[in-house]
Amino acid sequence: MSKTQPSLRKLNVLSSLRYLLNKKITLKRYWQKILLLTGIFLFITITVVHLQYPKAAMAINTYYVATNGSDSNSGTQQYPFATIAYAANKAQPGDTIYIRGGTYYPTKEIWIGNKGTASAPIAFESYSGERAIIDGSNLPTNKDPIAIGGEYIDIKNLEIRNAPRTGLTVWGGNHIKLLNNVVHDINGIGIYVGHDNLKQVTDILIEGNTVYHTNLKNSSHNDFGGNWGNGITASGSDNIQVINNKVYENHGEGIGLWGSDILISGNTVYDNYSVEIYLDGVGNATVQRNLIYTTNNSTYYRFGHPAVGIQVANEGGKYQLQNNKIINNIVIGGGWGFYYGNYKSGGGMKNMLIANNTFYKGTRGLINIDEDAGHNKTVFTNNIFYQVNDVQMTQFSADSALQFHHNAWYGGSAGSGAGNGDVNANPMLVKPGTLTARDYRLKAGSPLIEAGSRVTQVTNDYAGSTRPLDDEYDIGAYEYFAGL
Fold this sequence. Notes:
The structure is a single chain. By secondary structure, the protein is mainly beta. It folds into three domains: 14-52; 62-187; 218-225 and 234-484, Pectate Lyase C-like (3 Solenoid). The protein contains two helices and 34 strands. The chain has helices spanning 8-52, 84-90; strands spanning 62-65, 96-99, 102-104, 110-112, 122-126, 132-135, 146-148, 151-156, 158-161, 168-171, 174-179, 182-184, 191-194, 202-207, 210-212, 230-236, 238-243, 246-248, 253-265, 268-270, 275-288, 291-293, 308-313, 325-327, 330-332, 336-341, 353-355, 358-360, 365-369, 378-381, 384-386, 394-395, 402-405, 408-410. The strands form two sheets. It has a 22-stranded parallel β-sheet that branches. It has a twelve-stranded parallel β-sheet with strand order 3-6-9-12-15-18-20-22-25-28-31-34, with no helix packed on it.
């Protein structure tokens, strides 16, 4: 073996090193390919997700508007916008527009046509601890301070005043919340929700608002001009809720609704012109746990009497009075406690339940029902009719389509309203004659305790307590509870 020739062992070692080196290069290239393919896959995946769900990638912004701001600003708290309309044009799903305290005088209607989403609504609200006032004094006579046509829009804690037409309007919008606003001194309707196509108006919540001094154009009370609307008007076809509002001293009806699938609950309504709560051509509505009264403020009397407490009619709307529940309301004073008017198209009350209400002291009477061949399967039960001063109790003719039973009548004759299970005795209320709901509870020993009929559609009372608390239903808006 030559000294210059490498040994077999050395050759084997060199071969092994070359093999390992080649293997390392191959593995490196292999992993490079894997990483490249992985990167391509991730890029494609992210791109597809972004294209499918572009809103998920949007930033949620908070904008500010202030009376000393400028629309050329960035809209931050330090550099706010000047107008609500400019902020509205920029708003995207999930954005909040905080309006700083002060008075804003728009010269054009603030149109909110934006579309939020169920999980990311767009909110317009007064900044915490401040009150933003939108004053319509500088608007054209045919415009409203704020009009909404979008979706998933929340309007909160604003004060709206001096509107030449309507204070706060929703026209064709849906999934809208109007919360804790104060609307007053309005020439026309205070809060209006509607559209030519009622089915386009769905999922509207009007809650916690205070509405007063609206329909000022009817302050002269031209009864034959048809010149008044409501403090709150809503018309739609699905999930329209008017709850926990205070509506008073309006020169038109207090709350008036049209359409179907409507809830009017927990409102305080008083001293409005003509009618306090009005259902016109409404189907599948529930009117419950409302406190309705008059303070005998004659400014809002019609024909020398305070407004009717609850009135229903069919005045030519697209829907018919049917499948409605009027339950657990307290109606104090008023011209009539309950009134059905056979106006225009008529059609009667169909499949309606009027149960567990307390009607006290109507200046004309407690219940009036116009004759109508369309009445069908409407039941009055478990109501208190408590009259004073020898004023008539009822004004209607006997009709087999109107069923009366298990009602309490005190202070006069039930007339055609008399029925099986009636109680004709002093109901023994805590303190009748006040304007406080709790004073219309039953005292211990009241003959109305467990004297009512079992009505499965009525599951609680005015206070929200389960009904019945004992074995049988009580008559009136409150179930008796010995601990109260």
